[in-house]
Design a protein that fits this description.
The complex is a heterodimer of chains A (113) and B (112). Chain A is 0% helix and 60% strand. In chain A, strands 2, 4, 5, 9, 10 and 11 form a six-stranded mixed β-sheet that branches. In chain A, strands 1-3-8-7-6 form a five-stranded antiparallel β-sheet, with no helix packed on it. Chain A is built from no helices and eleven strands. The radius of gyration of chain A is 14 Å and the shape is globular. With 113 residues, chain A is mainly beta. Chain B is mostly beta strands and 112 residues long. Chain B is built from no helices and eleven strands. In chain B, the strands form two sheets. In chain B, strands 2, 4, 5, 6, 9, 10 and 11 form a seven-stranded mixed β-sheet that branches. In chain B, strand 9 and strand 10 form a beta hairpin. Classes of the chains: A mainly beta (113), B mainly beta (112).
Chain lengths: 113, 112
Protein backbone atom coordinates (compact mmCIF):
# COMPACT_ATOMS: atom_id res chain seq x y z
CA UNK A 1 0.00 0.00 0.00
CA UNK A 2 1.35 3.39 -1.00
CA UNK A 3 1.74 5.80 1.92
CA UNK A 4 2.78 9.41 1.73
CA UNK A 5 4.10 11.29 4.74
CA UNK A 6 4.87 14.97 5.03
CA UNK A 7 6.83 16.78 7.68
CA UNK A 8 6.51 19.00 9.39
CA UNK A 9 2.70 19.12 9.59
CA UNK A 10 2.75 22.64 11.00
CA UNK A 11 5.34 25.29 10.32
CA UNK A 12 5.43 28.83 11.59
CA UNK A 13 8.19 31.00 10.29
CA UNK A 14 9.22 34.60 9.92
CA UNK A 15 9.31 36.52 6.70
CA UNK A 16 12.69 36.44 5.04
CA UNK A 17 13.66 32.99 6.35
CA UNK A 18 14.25 29.80 4.39
CA UNK A 19 12.70 26.45 5.12
CA UNK A 20 12.04 23.02 3.61
CA UNK A 21 9.01 20.74 3.64
CA UNK A 22 9.67 17.04 3.18
CA UNK A 23 7.53 14.42 1.46
CA UNK A 24 8.37 10.74 1.83
CA UNK A 25 6.54 7.96 0.04
CA UNK A 26 6.65 4.23 0.52
CA UNK A 27 6.63 2.60 -2.92
CA UNK A 28 7.91 3.35 -6.38
CA UNK A 29 5.99 5.98 -8.27
CA UNK A 30 6.40 7.76 -11.56
CA UNK A 31 5.22 11.22 -10.63
CA UNK A 32 4.97 13.51 -7.69
CA UNK A 33 2.81 16.61 -7.38
CA UNK A 34 2.86 19.60 -5.09
CA UNK A 35 -0.34 21.55 -4.45
CA UNK A 36 -1.21 24.66 -2.50
CA UNK A 37 -4.52 25.10 -0.68
CA UNK A 38 -5.76 28.35 0.86
CA UNK A 39 -8.36 28.10 3.66
CA UNK A 40 -11.74 27.00 2.31
CA UNK A 41 -10.43 26.85 -1.23
CA UNK A 42 -9.57 24.20 -3.76
CA UNK A 43 -6.13 22.86 -4.65
CA UNK A 44 -3.83 24.83 -6.90
CA UNK A 45 -1.21 22.87 -8.80
CA UNK A 46 2.34 24.09 -8.10
CA UNK A 47 4.71 21.49 -9.54
CA UNK A 48 4.71 18.18 -11.34
CA UNK A 49 7.95 16.22 -10.94
CA UNK A 50 8.40 13.44 -13.44
CA UNK A 51 11.83 11.93 -13.02
CA UNK A 52 14.68 11.35 -10.63
CA UNK A 53 16.67 14.50 -10.04
CA UNK A 54 13.92 16.75 -11.34
CA UNK A 55 14.04 20.28 -9.97
CA UNK A 56 11.48 22.97 -10.65
CA UNK A 57 11.33 26.54 -9.43
CA UNK A 58 8.61 29.14 -9.40
CA UNK A 59 9.32 32.37 -7.59
CA UNK A 60 10.34 31.63 -4.00
CA UNK A 61 9.37 27.94 -4.23
CA UNK A 62 11.60 25.16 -5.47
CA UNK A 63 10.68 21.48 -5.61
CA UNK A 64 12.95 18.50 -6.14
CA UNK A 65 12.54 14.77 -6.46
CA UNK A 66 14.82 11.88 -5.49
CA UNK A 67 13.09 8.69 -6.59
CA UNK A 68 15.80 6.46 -5.17
CA UNK A 69 15.26 7.90 -1.70
CA UNK A 70 11.50 8.23 -2.35
CA UNK A 71 11.74 11.80 -1.18
CA UNK A 72 10.61 15.14 -2.49
CA UNK A 73 11.34 18.53 -0.96
CA UNK A 74 9.62 21.88 -1.28
CA UNK A 75 12.04 24.67 -0.41
CA UNK A 76 10.89 28.14 0.45
CA UNK A 77 13.36 30.96 0.00
CA UNK A 78 13.03 34.31 1.80
CA UNK A 79 9.44 33.62 2.77
CA UNK A 80 6.75 36.27 2.40
CA UNK A 81 3.32 36.41 4.04
CA UNK A 82 1.52 35.57 0.77
CA UNK A 83 2.99 32.08 0.90
CA UNK A 84 0.96 31.22 4.01
CA UNK A 85 -1.19 28.23 3.02
CA UNK A 86 -1.37 24.46 3.35
CA UNK A 87 0.91 22.53 1.02
CA UNK A 88 0.22 18.99 -0.09
CA UNK A 89 2.35 16.50 -1.93
CA UNK A 90 0.68 13.68 -3.83
CA UNK A 91 2.09 10.59 -5.47
CA UNK A 92 0.39 8.73 -8.26
CA UNK A 93 -0.12 5.03 -8.59
CA UNK A 94 -1.56 3.14 -11.54
CA UNK A 95 -4.29 0.78 -10.40
CA UNK A 96 -6.59 -1.07 -12.79
CA UNK A 97 -5.07 0.96 -15.57
CA UNK A 98 -5.92 4.34 -14.09
CA UNK A 99 -3.98 7.00 -12.25
CA UNK A 100 -4.91 7.38 -8.60
CA UNK A 101 -3.35 10.02 -6.38
CA UNK A 102 -2.35 9.40 -2.77
CA UNK A 103 -1.99 12.58 -0.74
CA UNK A 104 0.14 13.46 2.22
CA UNK A 105 -1.48 14.97 5.30
CA UNK A 106 -0.50 18.50 4.32
CA UNK A 107 1.84 21.06 5.87
CA UNK A 108 0.18 24.15 7.25
CA UNK A 109 2.58 27.01 6.71
CA UNK A 110 2.17 30.30 8.54
CA UNK A 111 4.52 33.15 7.73
CA UNK A 112 4.63 35.94 10.24
CA UNK A 113 5.75 39.50 9.52
CA UNK B 1 -13.59 29.93 -20.01
CA UNK B 2 -12.59 26.30 -19.65
CA UNK B 3 -12.76 24.81 -16.23
CA UNK B 4 -14.41 22.66 -13.62
CA UNK B 5 -17.47 23.84 -11.76
CA UNK B 6 -19.03 22.38 -8.65
CA UNK B 7 -22.37 23.24 -7.12
CA UNK B 8 -23.55 24.13 -4.68
CA UNK B 9 -20.67 25.74 -2.82
CA UNK B 10 -22.31 25.01 0.55
CA UNK B 11 -24.84 22.27 1.24
CA UNK B 12 -26.69 21.39 4.41
CA UNK B 13 -28.30 18.02 4.87
CA UNK B 14 -30.49 16.52 7.52
CA UNK B 15 -29.62 13.08 8.77
CA UNK B 16 -31.23 10.37 6.67
CA UNK B 17 -31.38 12.44 3.49
CA UNK B 18 -29.61 11.73 0.23
CA UNK B 19 -27.97 14.70 -1.48
CA UNK B 20 -26.33 15.07 -4.87
CA UNK B 21 -23.26 17.18 -5.56
CA UNK B 22 -22.74 18.44 -9.08
CA UNK B 23 -19.46 18.44 -11.00
CA UNK B 24 -19.23 19.72 -14.58
CA UNK B 25 -16.19 20.26 -16.79
CA UNK B 26 -15.84 21.79 -20.25
CA UNK B 27 -12.20 20.79 -20.72
CA UNK B 28 -13.07 17.75 -22.84
CA UNK B 29 -11.38 15.57 -20.23
CA UNK B 30 -12.06 11.85 -20.27
CA UNK B 31 -11.28 11.10 -16.62
CA UNK B 32 -13.07 12.52 -13.58
CA UNK B 33 -12.62 11.97 -9.86
CA UNK B 34 -14.28 12.65 -6.51
CA UNK B 35 -12.31 13.26 -3.35
CA UNK B 36 -13.24 13.90 0.25
CA UNK B 37 -11.23 16.15 2.56
CA UNK B 38 -11.69 16.20 6.32
CA UNK B 39 -10.34 19.05 8.47
CA UNK B 40 -6.56 18.97 8.73
CA UNK B 41 -6.31 15.99 6.40
CA UNK B 42 -5.28 15.21 2.87
CA UNK B 43 -7.67 14.12 0.16
CA UNK B 44 -9.09 10.60 -0.12
CA UNK B 45 -10.48 9.14 -3.32
CA UNK B 46 -14.17 8.22 -3.35
CA UNK B 47 -14.90 7.27 -6.97
CA UNK B 48 -13.31 7.78 -10.35
CA UNK B 49 -14.37 7.45 -13.96
CA UNK B 50 -12.01 6.89 -16.84
CA UNK B 51 -14.62 7.24 -19.56
CA UNK B 52 -18.33 7.81 -20.08
CA UNK B 53 -20.59 5.09 -18.69
CA UNK B 54 -17.79 3.60 -16.63
CA UNK B 55 -16.68 4.24 -13.04
CA UNK B 56 -14.78 2.47 -10.26
CA UNK B 57 -14.73 2.65 -6.50
CA UNK B 58 -11.90 4.47 -4.80
CA UNK B 59 -10.66 4.00 -1.27
CA UNK B 60 -13.73 5.21 0.61
CA UNK B 61 -16.73 4.49 -1.65
CA UNK B 62 -19.12 3.16 1.00
CA UNK B 63 -22.18 5.37 1.36
CA UNK B 64 -21.60 7.14 -1.96
CA UNK B 65 -22.80 6.60 -5.51
CA UNK B 66 -21.95 8.19 -8.87
CA UNK B 67 -23.00 8.18 -12.50
CA UNK B 68 -21.22 9.15 -15.70
CA UNK B 69 -23.86 9.48 -18.39
CA UNK B 70 -22.17 12.42 -20.10
CA UNK B 71 -18.51 13.21 -20.59
CA UNK B 72 -18.93 16.62 -19.00
CA UNK B 73 -20.72 15.54 -15.85
CA UNK B 74 -19.89 13.33 -12.87
CA UNK B 75 -22.42 13.84 -10.05
CA UNK B 76 -21.84 12.37 -6.60
CA UNK B 77 -24.71 11.25 -4.37
CA UNK B 78 -24.09 11.09 -0.66
CA UNK B 79 -26.55 8.57 0.67
CA UNK B 80 -27.98 8.10 4.13
CA UNK B 81 -25.68 5.10 4.47
CA UNK B 82 -22.66 7.44 4.75
CA UNK B 83 -22.28 7.72 8.51
CA UNK B 84 -20.13 10.81 8.70
CA UNK B 85 -20.65 12.84 5.54
CA UNK B 86 -19.68 16.28 6.84
CA UNK B 87 -16.60 17.19 4.80
CA UNK B 88 -15.24 19.21 1.90
CA UNK B 89 -15.79 17.45 -1.43
CA UNK B 90 -13.53 18.09 -4.40
CA UNK B 91 -14.06 17.02 -7.97
CA UNK B 92 -11.14 16.72 -10.37
CA UNK B 93 -10.62 15.87 -14.01
CA UNK B 94 -7.73 14.94 -16.27
CA UNK B 95 -7.33 14.70 -20.01
CA UNK B 96 -6.96 10.95 -19.68
CA UNK B 97 -6.43 8.42 -16.96
CA UNK B 98 -2.65 8.92 -16.88
CA UNK B 99 -2.26 12.67 -16.68
CA UNK B 100 -2.35 15.53 -14.20
CA UNK B 101 -5.60 16.14 -12.40
CA UNK B 102 -7.14 19.60 -12.08
CA UNK B 103 -9.49 20.43 -9.25
CA UNK B 104 -12.82 22.21 -9.00
CA UNK B 105 -13.64 24.77 -6.30
CA UNK B 106 -15.26 22.25 -3.95
CA UNK B 107 -18.55 21.76 -2.09
CA UNK B 108 -18.71 21.95 1.68
CA UNK B 109 -21.34 19.54 3.00
CA UNK B 110 -22.62 19.83 6.55
CA UNK B 111 -25.01 17.39 8.18
CA UNK B 112 -27.35 19.02 10.67
Amino acid sequence: ELKVEQNPLFLSMQEGKNYTIYCNYSTTSDRLYWYRQDPGKSLESLFVLLSNGAVKQEGRLMASLDTKARLSTLHITAAVHDLSATYFCAVDRIIQGAQKLVFGQGTRLTINP
Amino acid sequence: DGGITQSPKYLFRKEGQNVTLSCEQNLNHDAMYWYRQDPGQGLRLIYYSQIVNDFQKGDIAEGYSVSREKKESFPLTVTSAQKNPTAFYLCASSIDRFNEQFFGPGTRLTVL
